[in-house]
Amino acid sequence: MRKAQIKRQTAETNVNVSINIDGSGQVDITTGQRLFDHMLASFAKHGLFDITLNATGDDVHHLVEDVGIALGQAFNQALSDKKGLSRMGEAAVPMDEALSSVFIDVSGRPYFFIDAEFSGNDMFGFPADMVRHFLEAFATESRITLHAHVNYGENDHHKCESLFKALGRALDHATWIDARRAGQSPSTKEFMG
User: Fold this and answer.
1) pTM of the shown model
2) How many separate helices (H) and strands (E) can be counted in the chain?
3) What is the dihedral of CA 17, 22, 26, 30, to 10 degrees?
4) Which pLDDT band holds residue 95 (cuts at 50, 70, 90)?
5) How far apart are CA 142 and CA 76, in angstroms?
6) What is the mean pLDDT of residues 61-75?
């Protein structure tokens, strides 16, 4: 079973997360930031991940960063040795006038790139810059290569949501177990990391 639980407690935040990679998109997410909860739920629903996440923090920046760290650690732990993984995934997701695309390699080598312009809208107390901040923390701690693009769009909410949905779908594809690779590392090095 590809499941994990992570607890992260600091002087600034308290985060508890559990994940089932082979889930059905069931979520119970509470961070105190309604838009962030919605984005995380969209990610889980479109990635078919079961996620239970409760988090509190002294400000939105610390909260988002530590949720990204804990959720990334949970993914990395749940994927274990990564044997049999499809390993790479991509997805493009439209939402009304916005289109986002995400490319992932579950390589064991963290790298993050984003090409996204937001208008600076605070999206109901969730600053658009927190999208980049979350994705960077998540990519680093899950030890994946993540390239995220908002191809175009006008509404920050639509751009943000299409990006989170694309992340879920791309990560779902990358974490599929390929029967042809059963018990094998998806790397010529025979080692992921």
Assistant:
1) 0.92
2) 4, 8
3) 10
4) very high
5) 5
6) 98
